[in-house]
Specification:
mainly alpha, 16 helices, 3-stranded mixed sheet, Arc Repressor Mutant, subunit A
Length: about 350
């Protein structure tokens, strides 16, 4: 009963509903006071009411009886302080729900989940420190200086959980640790990160927050170094020099646009990278960024990056478990947060 009570409250928060809102959505089949008693664990609803609750909250019946297998650490909403508390709590519950189903699937398949790379013994104090760290991580992941194809899948293959959620206007991305600091988690807002180059940059920015030792720095310094880390990962120093040279007095969009298309990094981030590495002067950088702003390219740049940025890992693991008969089709549908008929139809799976 207590487990049901906790899960009901989590589902309501995840849906962004108050008790009054939920009662209205249930068309007053049950009072707000009764819903409050359900959440306190005073008594259980019958099976018919559980069905109504599932429809109203958009969850499967087993959601209420599935043991929570994940705990997430504190989420630092850095970028936009106007993000409402209700939306923050809803986002936290959505993150926990997706992550718990993912970790349950990995547990079924006996797949290790702990992330082993750590740079906490290397405090960040300069751009040079970040540059060295990015080079070391690229080396560990055997990336060389090549463009990163499908960054999201690369992160997932290296035991970093990337969760994409549609949320109200309030954040681009955020990061946290799950299960006592063992599992790094990056959450991306589908609503905000529509362009693929922005999605890639945001994901790496959040990775910077997770793995770099930013202790003792101001929030502004932390953001600056995480931006530098993202750019260094996407466009290595030697690669930039090879593409544009080491000293330039001027750059043109038709020259750096193809770099964006090849490496999946925005024109503005390339300009910052050239300024930070001394390829262009600070004064010319300001002129270039003014040109970008005046041309209307601040939010929508030319030279679209047309890569592929999604992870197929969860689905591959799901069908692996199903194919090995480690889970039933009903369980597979539940882990995928779908009804059985919907799962069969969408995946062309025959009974």
């Amino acid at each position: 009963m207590n487990q049901f009570a906790e899960r009901l409250k989590s589902a309501r928060i995840m849906a962004g509903l108050s008790l009054h809102d939920l009662a209205e959505k249930l068309e007053n089949r049950v009072t707000r006071q009764s819903l409050h008693k359900y959440e306190k664990g005073d008594f259980m609803p019958d099976s018919e009411m559980i069905g109504y609750l599932c429809d109203a909250l958009g969850v499967r019946p087993d959601y209420f009886f599935r043991k929570e297998v994940v705990e997430i650490g504190e989420i630092d909403f850095r970028k936009r302080q106007r993000f409402p508390v209700k939306d923050r709590k809803s986002l936290e519950e959505k993150t926990k729900d997706v992550l718990s189903r993912y970790l349950e699937l990995e547990e079924i398949l006996n797949i290790p989940t702990d992330f082993s790379i750590s740079y906490k013994d290397r405090p960040i104090q300069s751009n040079s420190d970040v540059e060295d760290l990015a080079k070391d991580l690229r080396s560990k992941w055997k990336l060389g200086n090549d463009p990163i194809f499908n960054l999201i899948e690369l992160l997932e293959d290296n035991k970093i959980k990337v969760i994409e959620i549609e949320s109200s206007d309030g954040f681009d991305g955020l990061s946290t640790w799950a299960n006592n600091g063992k599992i790094p988690v990056i959450v991306l807002n589908k609503t905000e990160t529509k362009s693929l180059d922005r999605k890639r940059f945001t994901a790496l920015h959040e990775l910077g927050h997770l793995i770099m030792n930013l202790g003792g720095l101001t929030d502004k310094q932390k953001e600056k170094y995480c931006n530098y880390f993202a750019a260094a990962m996407l466009l290595p120093e030697d690669t930039l020099y090879k593409e544009v040279g080491k000293n330039r007095s001027k750059i043109l969009l038709p020259e750096i646009g193809p770099i964006k298309q090849q490496y999946g990094i925005s024109i503005q981030a390339i300009a910052y990278r050239m300024k930070d590495l001394g390829v262009i002067s600070e004064s010319y950088f300001k002129q270039f960024m003014f040109f970008i702003s005046q041309s209307g390219y601040k939010t929508e740049e030319p030279f679209e990056y047309k890569g592929q940025e999604q992870s197929r890992r969860f689905n591959q693991l799901l069908f692996r478990a199903l194919g090995e008969e480690l889970i039933s089709m009903s369980k597979a549908a539940s882990l995928n947060n779908q009804k059985l008929a919907e799962f069969r139809e969408k995946n062309l799976v025959l009974a």
